[in-house]
Specification:
alpha+beta
C-alpha cells in the first residue's frame, strides 16, 4: 500500500521488489501467487513434521492424500485454477497422482476431459482440453500433493493468516525435533536458521537471505544456520560487510544440521 511503499525509501532494511518476480508467467495473478504460497506453507509443514518425527523415531501416519493445482500452464484450457483440489478424472476418484497422468496419456490432443474439483469448499464438474507436445499429451497443470496425517505425540501448528511460503521449513523441523527428544540440541544457545526442507530431509535455498540474517542479529542470535551454496556465500559476505557478530553454519541436510549442532 501507499504507506509501506513510502516506508521502503526510509527504512534501510526494506526493499521494493517487483511483484512480477513472484509470478511463474505474465498471465498469472497475485491471487495465484498467494494461493501457491499458502500451499507451499502447508507442504513445508508436512515435510517438517515428517522429517522431525522420523528422525526422532516417533509415529507419523499418512491417512489420506489430496491433490491440488499448483500451477496452470499457458497451454491449458478450461475452467481450472491454482488452488483447485482434484477429486476425480473421467469419473474415477484420484487415489494416486500417477493415475492422473496415466489417464491423460490415453487421451488424444483436443480431447475433452471431465474433472471433479473442489473450489472454495464447493464441489463442481469442469472440462479441460488435452494438448499434445513432442508426442505426449498433457493436461497443462502442475499438481501438489498435500497430506492428511496424524502424529504421536500430537502436533499443532499456529500460524497467522498472512504467513505463507516454505522458507521456514528447515528451522521448524529442528524445533519439532528438539521438542520430541530428551536432548536439547540448542545447548542453551539462541539458534536461528532458514531454508526449505523436503520429505527426504534436504535443505533448500531461499530468497532474501540478507533480511533473515539481519533479523537473526537484531534478535541477538548466537548461531545462524543457512543452506549451502549461494545462500551461505551471501550470508558470509553480508556478515563481513556489516560486521555482524554471529556464527554462520552451512547445512546441506537435516541430519547434517543435527550432527553439527551436536558437535558444537
Amino acid at each position: 500500500n501507499v504507506l509501506t511503499f513510502g516506508l521502503s525509501y526510509i527504512i534501510p532494511d526494506w526493499d521494493l521488489v517487483d511483484a512480477n518476480l513472484y509470478k511463474i508467467d505474465d498471465e498469472e495473478t497475485l491471487v495465484d501467487v498467494s494461493k501457491r504460497n499458502e500451499m507451499d506453507l502447508l507442504d513445508s509443514l508436512q515435510a517438517s513434521a515428517s522429517v522431525a518425527y522420523h528422525e526422532a523415531g516417533k509415529s507419523f501416519k499418512i491417512n489420506k492424500k489430496h491433490y491440488y493445482v499448483y500451477y496452470v500452464y499457458k497451454e491449458a484450457s478450461g475452467d481450472i485454477h491454482v488452488g483447485d483440489e482434484i477429486l476425480a478424472i473421467d469419473g474415477k476418484e484420484i487415489k494416486d497422482i500417477d493415475e492422473f497422468g496415466t489417464i491423460i496419456s490415453k487421451h488424444k490432443a483436443k480431447d475433452k476431459v471431465k474433472l471433479k474439483i473442489k473450489r472454495d469448499d464447493k464441489e463442481k464438474e469442469i472440462e479441460i482440453t488435452v494438448f499434445e507436445e513432442k508426442g505426449k499429451t498433457y493436461a497443462g497443470i502442475m499438481i501438489m500433493t498435500l497430506l492428511d496425517y496424524e502424529t504421536d505425540p500430537k502436533l499443532t501448528f499456529n500460524f497467522k493468516k498472512n504467513e505463507s511460503g516454505s522458507s521456514g521449513g528447515f528451522t521448524l523441523a529442528l524445533a519439532i525435533y528438539n521438542k520430541l527428544t530428551k536432548e536439547d540440541i540448542t545447548k542453551g544457545k539462541k539458534i536461528v536458521g532458514t531454508g526449505t526442507i523436503d520429505s527426504a530431509g534436504n535443505v533448500g535455498e531461499i530468497s532474501g537471505i540478507k533480511y533473515k540474517l539481519s533479523g537473526a542479529v537484531k534478535d541477538k542470535a548466537d548461531i545462524f544456520l543457512v543452506p549451502t551454496g549461494d545462500n551461505y556465500k551471501e550470508a558470509i559476505k553480508v556478515k563481513k560487510e556489516r560486521g555482524y557478530d554471529i556464527k554462520i553454519i552451512e547445512v546441506k541436510t537435516f541430519a547434517d544440521a543435527i550432527e553439527k549442532l551436536q558437535n558444537m
